[in-house]
Each structure stands twice: as structure tokens, then as C-alpha cells.
Amino acid sequence: MSTEKLALTTNSAARKPASAGGASTALAADLTRALGPRKVLSNLSERLNYRYDAIQFGATPLAVVLPESTEDVVAAVRAARAAGVPIVGRGAASGLSGGAAPLEPGLVISFTRMTRLSIHPERREATAQAGVVTLAVTEAARPHGLIYPPDPASFRTSTIGGNLAENAGGPMCFKYGVSGDYVRALEFVDEGGEVHRLTRDVFDLAGLLIGSEGTLGLITEATLRLIPPPRFTRTLMAHFPEVGACAEAVSRAIAAGAVPSKLEFMDRACTNAVEDYLHLGLPRDAEAVLLVDTDGEDLDTVQDELRLVEEACVASGGTVRRAATDEEGALLWRARRSVSPALGRIRPQRMNEDIVVPRSALPDVVREIRALGDASPFPVVQFGHIGDGNLHPNILFDPRREDAHAVHDLAHRIALVAIRHGGVLSGEHGIGSMKRDFMRDAVDPETLAALRGVKRALDPSGALNPGKILPAEGVDG
Amino acid sequence: MSTEKLALTTNSAARKPASAGGASTALAADLTRALGPRKVLSNLSERLNYRYDAIQFGATPLAVVLPESTEDVVAAVRAARAAGVPIVGRGAASGLSGGAAPLEPGLVISFTRMTRLSIHPERREATAQAGVVTLAVTEAARPHGLIYPPDPASFRTSTIGGNLAENAGGPMCFKYGVSGDYVRALEFVDEGGEVHRLTRDVFDLAGLLIGSEGTLGLITEATLRLIPPPRFTRTLMAHFPEVGACAEAVSRAIAAGAVPSKLEFMDRACTNAVEDYLHLGLPRDAEAVLLVDTDGEDLDTVQDELRLVEEACVASGGTVRRAATDEEGALLWRARRSVSPALGRIRPQRMNEDIVVPRSALPDVVREIRALGDASPFPVVQFGHIGDGNLHPNILFDPRREDAHAVHDLAHRIALVAIRHGGVLSGEHGIGSMKRDFMRDAVDPETLAALRGVKRALDPSGALNPGKILPAEGVDG
Question: Which residues pair with A235 in a beta bridge?
Fold first, then answer.
């Protein structure tokens, strides 16, 4: 656990040390009475581990509950509400927007013991408790000839509950849709400790819970749709002398009828970071590298689609390398999967944005963000899911030496580039605490008021994950 | 327009004659001042046409506005709010749950003049105002090699706004998803006359609006996802000596890996009604008729999938007829498409339910509903989208001779069969006014309270389509 992680928040409570032992002891005692000692963590040394997610450092919780059932969650919520403390749900804490990092001392409910999973091949469904690891769903479904497509980068550790709370995406999502598209039914516990079981029905409350980052309710179980895996996959890498040509190639391929299952982009700085790390022979001079998979039931169709992409890349001035074997395809994808460790060698910390812009605006957006990076003291790299226009500009910095406010300011200016080009703040990581201040730029005041109204309706006490998504009130008028 | 249509509602206002001229004249004058005379209907003879949808008869509106732009909708909403009267949105009024039929005299906003439509092939998107006819989207997209898949039965007349308000489905939805799955962005006008433009982002307010039947806001425009049409389609019809065998065949085919694009079921009464009408040579003795399409990019795969369905049908005791040509396929589908006119010959009116049950429960559900029909004075026929377990039990009756309360009571008992078997009330038609009383059986009181909270947050005055979806308060505790 890195104590250098940085709280990018305006909420001063988050930077306070864990509150005095009194409140913590009383809450832990209540919880232990309700749940037994095995499910409650009350020692400071244990609680300290539940302060952070993969990008943000928060407040030390007063107590941590490790529920094993929905009933345990109900008991924990009721105890926290009786004590008047906030409640933050937590999966694997691999999120990239601070969604699982508490901003105030309170109760953290960590779902990692709720791992019941069943596969129903005849209905092509899985029923998974919130703590089931994402990859485990596909592992259990595969013997039945089925998979669960959503593939966020952390899918080997992330949980279904966390994925749904953030409505996580991944490379497969261009063709197959995001986590929420696979939810047939949802169980959640509300702020009052009531259990709700919802299908995707009129007044799609389940859909509202998905992506609400634990601010409207705590997701305890989901019924997930499964699909048969594609029988064939083919891969190519292309590189381009400039970003516009890469974006043009993608638009051209899609217009020609290709629906690649993955369409990933890396800018020059990103490619060089990976090349420094792995020495794969990547084109260091290319302004844009594109990685593409096509997949499907029929090999001819899959190859035809890859050919459409190849022709579009060449027509746009790109240089194409087609993987001859599955092994070569896996090698090409290793470059993309190694972005995170490669960046970690440059600076210990990064601010990872998640903007989505119209694909036609991508060349301008990439150029403007690079200019912002060049004018700043921080390295800025860009990569992402170009098929959706989902870009991850990353600001690399060292919190021991560099100014957190300057990082936050640069992140804000990057967000404004996206908004100016008709984009949005989050494609798959959520808003969390990290980008909530930028919501005022992204959402008009009337819609913000409507979102606040919905929040008040479902969480009247405001106990659920306070300080996330919605900016502080009274400032945006 | 049929004046025999029946108001199946507990709201007495709906049965009152149009309210006295005074309120109507004042509202029409305000609206005419704001919008000009061409966009306002104030004569009683004109207003009478806006009382009903395809299944329900409501209250005569005080005034009708035919907006041509979002600004017109804003002006109309503000005038209605100033006058303190309710506001009901209306597309083609082809809905089957009373969603567009006003229950109290007020303002009806009819979107049929908001027909601006543009296709963006490079983004595979259409931007459609609320009044665009569903089929028009595919007609405009097809020259670009794209289609808009949602195909509710009325798609030749229904509008995008109405489809989204009800989150309409259709036969294609088993493979391709319902209307809401194709929405990338949404514009709506709220109860206060504010315009909101939403993408499918965190706090998926757009998703909440979809399927909320005009009770949370008025959808004015949507950005819709388009897909390339399947290159090949193949069709078969199978019939079975009992319903269980048909449901089993469907489960077997899906488990074997087939993903048919359409999977339609008709029970014996339904088949005989169609046969009486069209004399197509349908199997009158079969307890269940199944109609199946498979489609895709690759003819071999499409034929393989149809073969999997055929084998599953035979293994379950069915008799299969495979269409040799596209013309024969079209002929087979004519049977399913003629259900509505065929039923109209038996009784002038029908109560059309829209339950969804687990497919494994389908044989019991069909049997129990048939028993309820047999014990009642009304013919009951059943058909629907069996792939999703979406069944449409229809109670046929003559409102001039038969007791509306007995129809409502039978409809309620049919809804309870679905709920008892783990089903829900609406797959694609919405709840409207017709099934709102049954919501108390379908949704627990805590979730009903949450839905009411959301309604109050987005429509504090309660002006938007009052009396729909949510049952009257104070009864369910």
C-alpha cells in the first residue's frame, strides 16, 4: 500500500487522520453485536487498508464489515445509520476515479466474501453476488460454451459489484457493450437497510443504480446475461504518421462495414513508454499506433472484416502489420496491456482521465491535450478505446516533489478540452471524487439539480458514499 | 375512432365529459399567444381525437399542441404549468397500455410534427426528433447500409418518442435488444420547462426517462445507434402437441448455441383465430405454433443455426416446416402479423397483457392462464416472444355487452399468475394506466416508495402524465 497516494479532493475531512478511537470503538461494538466478530475489522492497522482505491487515498474508516450475505449488508447499514456515519461500498478497489475511497471516516462494506456464483446455461445467465471476481464469471461459464464479455483492465481482480457500480467498460465493449448492458436483474440494499430486487423494467431503477458508484444503494447481487464466445479472432497493428490519419482510418473501416471487437489507440509518448519497458520493436516515430481485433462465428467473415480495417488503414496512410498466428496476436496485445506498468516507471503516480469525444474530434482533442502537456511540467500520455472515442489522457507525476494543485488544474483543463469538443467526462471509470468538480462544466445546472433530486429521493440522509459524482452544493447555483 | 373503447381505470376524472369550455378556452388562448394559432388545437371536435391510444379511452384534453421544435414544447409546458393543468405526451398513440391516453383534462402535446431526422453513417447514428416514425429511421439509414432494429408491431406508424417512452420491443428484440438499447443520447423537457441533453453517462438519467411513459419528462429528440442489416435470413415454423414441448424446444435450441433473431409463439386459440381469418393451412390441432428466424453475415452459419432449432424442435416432439424461399418465409410470418386483425373479428375489444416469465415456467403459465380463460365468459388467446418469455395473453370482449370489471378482474388474475411464477408485468408495452393497479403485487412497498421518490424529484408538481405506472398512494402503505 502506497502512502504517497494523493487525495485530489476539496473535502478536508479526507485528509484528516482517522477520527479518534471513541466513535470507531462504539461503531465496531455495535457491528460486532449484530454480525459477530469474524465479519468486523476494528483494529487501526486493518482499517488503514480500506482507505484507498487504485488511484486515490481517502479517510481511514471507523470500521470495516466483510459481509457474507445480503442480510449481513442490511445489518451493517442499519448499524451505520443508527450511528449516523457514512457508508462506502468497496469491491476490489481497482477503480480509477476514487469511487471506493471514503472521503469521511465511516463504515466501509467490503464485498470480497460475497462470492456466490451460479451459471444457468439454459437461460444463458449467471447469478453473481457482488464480490465475485469479474473473470470468475467467464471461467465458470466457459465449460457451458458461454462467456461474460465486459473486460475492464483489472478484470482478474475487480468484482462484479464494483464493475456495476462504475458501469465499467473495456476493450471488448466497442462491439459487445459495457457492464450494465449485461444486467438482467439486480439486488440492492438502500440507505434505510431495505432490500430491493429489480428487473430491467419500467422506471429502470436498476439502470440508475448501475454507474451510480454506491451513492444511491449498495448492489449485493446481479443476474448477468452470458453469450457464446466468438469462434475466431484475428489481430492487426497499424501505425500512422499523425493522429488524424489514425482516427480517419477507424471511421473509414467502420463506415465500410467492419465491427472490430477491439480498437485500441496509443499516442507516441505511450508507445515509447511501452517500448522503453518491453523492447518489443514498436514504431517509436509513429504518432499513433492502432491495435485491432475482429472476431465472429465465421472465419471468412472475420478475415474479411480485418481486411476492411487493413484497407482503411493503408488508404489513410498507415503501415499495417497483420498477426500471422494467435501467438503473434497475443504479443501485439501485450504492448497495450503493459501500458500501466510502463507508465509507473516514469513517475510513481498518475491522474488517469477517461474522456469520451466524437471520433471526428479526436485528432484535435489529442493535439490540444498534447499541447497542454507540453506546456506543463508533467509528462502526459494518451491511449484508449478509439472505436468509442474513449481516451485516457494520463498525467504522470511524483507527489513527493510535485504540486498536486497543478496536476488537478491540468486535469481540469484536459476535461474542458473534451467538453468543448462535445465530449463527456467518463467512458468507463466513473466520476468518483476525482472528477466531481468538473461535473459543473459537463452538466447544466438544471440537470445537476435533477440528479441531486434523484440522490435525495433514494438516499435522503446522504449517508451513501458522500462526496462522489455530484459537486458540492451551493456553488453551481 | 371507436367510442366503444373502455376506460379501465379507477380515476373517475377519466370518465367525465370534457370539462367546461372555460378552462379549455383560457388555456388555448395562452397557448395561441405563445405558439401562434397553427400549432394549437382548441375545437372540441379536434380535441376529441386526442383522448385515446390503441387500447384505452381517456379524458378529452383542454387543448392540444402540435409542436415543431423543442422550443415549442418548452412554451407549451410553461403555459400548462402556469394554468396548473396536467401534461400528457403523445406520439402515434399506438401504445397498448394507455400510456398516451390522458386520465384528466389537461394539455396533450402531440409530437407528430417533430419529424426532423438525420443519418450519420460514419458514426452509425441517427438523430431523430420525437415524432419521427420508427420505420422512417431504417428507411433513411438503409441506403447507407444500416438499419434501426427495434420493430414493435406498430412500427409503420409508431414514433421514436413513443417507442422510447414505453421502451418498446418487438420480435427482433430477442437477438437485438429493445428500443432503449439503441439510445446514445436523449433530449427531454422537464416539468418546469427546462431542456436537458443527456448522454448515457454516470447517473443514467436518460435510461430512467426511457420507459417512464412521459411521467418524468417529455422526450423531444434522441441519438440512436444503427447497425448493418443481417445479410441472410432463414425461417421455419414448428408445431407441437403441447406447450411444454414448445418451450422445451426453445430452451434446447438456445442451449445448443442458436441465437435466433425472432422466436414467436401462438397458442391453439390464437392459431385458430388466424386460420379462420386467412385460411393459410395452419395446424388447427397444435397446442403451440413456433415461428423462428435466424439471421447473420454468413449463410452457412445462418443455416446451421436454423438446423439447431429444427433438431431441437424434432427432439421435443415438434413437426417442422422449413421455408424453402424468402417468399415462403414471408408467408409464414404473415400468420403472426395477422394476429391483431384476426382477434378483432372475434370481439371488438381486447385487454392485451404483456407479461414476462422465466421460459422454464412458460408451460405452467400458459396452462394456468388458459384455465382462467376457460372458467371465464371471455375468449383468452396467448401469443408472444417466447425467446424472452414475453407472453401476450389477450382477453377478448365486447364492451357494449360485457362487464368491464369482470375483464379487469380476469386481467388481474392473469397478472398474478405471472408474478407467482417469478415474472414481471410488462415486457414491451409499458404499465400505463391499464396495469398500474397490479404494480402493488409486482413491486414491494419499499421499491414503490423509491419509485415515488424519483417521480417527486423529477416531477415535483405531479403534472406529467398523472395516474400512469404508479398506483394511487395511501393504499399500499
Answer: A293
